[in-house]
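User: As part of a screening pipeline, I want to sanity-check one entry by hand. Below is the sequence and the SMILES for zinc ion. Please return the complex as structure tokens so I can compare it with the automated output.
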Amino acid sequence: MQFLKNNYKNIIKNVAAVSLSLCMFTSPVFSSAASYDQQISDKQENIDSLESEKSALEDLVSQKQDELSSISSEIAKLESDKLAMMTTEEMAIAELEFIKQSILDSEKEIESMEKQLGELEETLVQRASIMYQNSDINWLAVFFEADNIFDFFDRIEAYKQVAKEDADLLEKVKSDKQQLELKKDQQVRLFSEKEVLLAEIESAIEDIKNKTEITEGKYAALSKLLAEMEEEESRLDDEISTMTGELENLEEKKRREEEEKRRQEEERKKQEEDKKKQEEAIKNQQGNNNTNVPSRGETNTNFCWPVASYFYVSSPFGYRTHPITHKWSMHTGVDLAASSGTAIYAAQSGVVEISTTNGGGYGYYVKIQHANGMETLYAHCSKLLVSEGETVQRGQKIAEVGKTGAATGSHLHFEVIKNGEYVQPLDYVSDDVH
Ligand SMILES: [Zn+2]
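Assistant: Here is the complex for your manual check:
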């Protein structure tokens, strides 16, 4: 019992140690999948350990329940023994009472015999006195009362006979009394034997009562232990369920992180492919035109190259002699030489601010408003494909190259406006060919 109790305490201690180590494992914040793997494996290990503690505890509980049930039947047996013993006790008490009564009866009888004996002795003494000693007896009167001498002797004989019968009776009563005394002695012995037996029965009952008390004490202690163990079992259950929840959480985090990595990897690959395609396109264009290629955009707007297939900047941004007026003036965009009808693309997603065929020197032109105070403008178009207020996507075809307005030949006049100011378009546009 004590041994098992110690075992149980050890289990509790082990469980506490596991819980502690668990806290140490779960506290740090990890972010990589590898550390999630480590955490998941640690957590799984701890759950396994808790499961095995629980299983050991369950075995112990089952063992204790058996023990409890055996103690319970022991108590029931003791109770039934006690009842049987108490019945025996009652019978012994009744028997003692009966013997006691018999002894009393015998004593009374002996007393009455003694009285009878006394009377008989007295009678005999009187008769003897009458016959032999007492001078008061008038033998002469007896003689004269007799009819003849024979009658006289007969009368004497009759006295003798009476005296003899008295003596016989005395002897018989004496003998009866002796027998009765023997019987009484036997009853007294029996009584004391029965008294010893009763004392033994009472002591046995006392023993059973003590045993019952001890066994009931055991039962109570074991019940308490069992209740504690069952409570511990339920605590373990809770802990396992919490930990399983944490494990699922970790696995979900890991899954999300892996998904995010996969997505990023795909994005990276796509960007690499796009870059390769673009580089190939540039190479092809260089081979075809052998003209100057604009530098890449250095800003973060990620504008795409606004015209298909053509990369030749026929007139740069900034001050120059105007090709028509021949005056030194500011060129607010870049001119990208391209044949008429070439597709013009929205450099970035946005909302069409202006789409007009009445643009003066710009001719047909489109102006798009983008995020972060950016705008782009596409002029000298031959054809407009979008209308004002329309939302357009980056790389969407919005117009075709032409030479409407003040233009000497087919080209796209492309402007980038930042917070209302003209800026160098080549700083914003990438060589990302649509
Ligand atoms: Zn221009």
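Points to compare against the pipeline: Residues 33 and 410 are 56 Å apart (CA to CA). The chain has two domains: 2-254, 291-427.
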